[in-house]
Amino acid sequence: MGSAAFIFLLLGSMTAPSQGTQNNQVGTNNKSTKLEYVFDVPSLVGRNVDEVRSVLGEPTDKDKEPTALQSQMGVDEWQNTFTKEGRELLVTYNPTTRKIVDFFISKNNADTDDSLLEAGNLTEQDSRYKIEFVKALRNPSEFTGVKVMPL
After folding, report:
1. 32 or 112: which carries more pLDDT confidence?
2. From CA 103, how far away is CA 94, in angstroms rounded?
3. Gap between the Cα atoms of 112 and 124, Å rounded
4. Dist CA 14 CA 23 (whole Å)
């Protein structure tokens, strides 16, 4: 086989990861690393709620916006829930300004700190947001999920 054909085969076998849920095997010398996330939260930071909905789809909530009466009463925060692959992402926003207040990824039974961060494609060192593990009220040694606050 000529070198040009070998390079073509080599380049043809490479693929770039797609956006969204990642479950790609990246192999080198028969070792593989699995990249997995359900919600790409860093890509949502800096967007307003309408832009988040355009990425994630329709929220699962019955009322995705406050009623006129609730708005008149001065409701300044509202939440939308997005569900994907058995995971929930709760997005809190200001209904007037449309600005995101925070994101919350709920903990599944088997979750660890690291797996919660993986589910949201999060790192604790990212300067675009702050991460807070939310403790359970009844047992402060456990947590209910991770809150991500855009900076």
Report:
1. 112
2. 13
3. 14
4. 15
> Average of pLDDT values for 16-40?
52
pLDDT of 36 reads 84
User: Tell me: the pLDDT tens digits for 63-73?
Assistant: 999 999 999 99
pTM: 0.75
How far apart CA 52 and CA 32 sit, in angstroms, is 32
Q: Is 145 left (phi over 0), alpha (psi -120 to 50) or beta?
A: left
Q: What is the DSSP letter of 136?
A: P
Place of tokens 């406050």: 66
Number of domains comprising the chain:
1
- Burial class of residue 138 (count of CB atoms within 10 Å of its CB; 0-12, 13-18, 19+): exposed
The residue whose two tokens read 């604790």 is: 124
* Tokens representing residue 65 in the block: 């916006």
Q: Which domain holds residue 10?
A: 3-150
CA–CA distance, 151 with 143 (Å, rounded to integer): 23
